[in-house]
Design brief:
mainly beta; ten-stranded antiparallel beta barrel; 1 helix
């Protein structure tokens, strides 16, 4: 027995509509779990790092260029950023592990510098009005500091990442890391 062509199209269309509805419901129900989906892929990156943050030294910025690759993990409930940049002052190879906490509806971002293999304390937060804001506590030279990390999507193929430290509990911030990413077309 053959099914008429129109019936096949109607069934296929109904199945596609059901899949689309399920996908949009699960995406909407995921809270901020999809916040970083736009970043999955390969990027060319330029990085500027303040040589001596929160010091009395004059500002000296170190320049780096290279790649950043973002990969999803665990059904997009996590992702990892693999950073490889170099410049006249050396190389930075690092990972940023991002984990989504559905109960708190927030992300934790933890950086690993491959030079020493140590995890930094995580920063926590999410996206509001198109900007990711993440805050945490750390130490610099044995003194406690606050850390702020901002993620700004600047169109489909550009993004900016900014890290700042505060030695006064968040009253003032000194930016010490700026990264500009452009999607790679390979």
């Amino acid at each position: 027995m053959t099914v008429p062509h129109k019936r096949i199209l109607a069934v296929a269309f109904a199945a596609l509509m059901l899949i689309a509805a399920t996908a949009s419901t699960s995406s909407a129900g995921a809270g901020g779990q999809r916040d970083f989906d736009w970043e999955i892929g390969s990027w060319r990156t330029t990085v500027r790092v303040l040589a001596e943050p929160l010091s009395e030294s004059p500002d000296q910025w170190l320049q780096f260029a290279g790649t950043s690759v973002v990969r999803p993990l665990m059904d997009q409930r996590a992702n990892v950023v693999e950073l490889k940049v170099s410049g006249a002052s050396g190389r930075i190879d690092g990972l940023n592990l991002r984990l989504y906490e559905p109960q708190a509806q927030r992300w934790s971002l933890t950086f690993v510098n491959m030079r020493d293999g140590l995890l930094t304390p995580a920063v926590y937060g999410g996206f509001r009005n198109g900007v990711g804001e993440f805050y945490g506590d750390d130490q610099l030279g044995g003194r406690p500091i606050k850390v702020r990390f901002l993620v700004t999507r600047q169109g489909q193929d550009r993004a900016r990442f900014e890290q700042a430290f505060s030695a006064d509990g968040g009253a003032t911030w000194e930016t010490n890391w700026l990264a500009e990413d452009r999607r790679s077309r390979s």
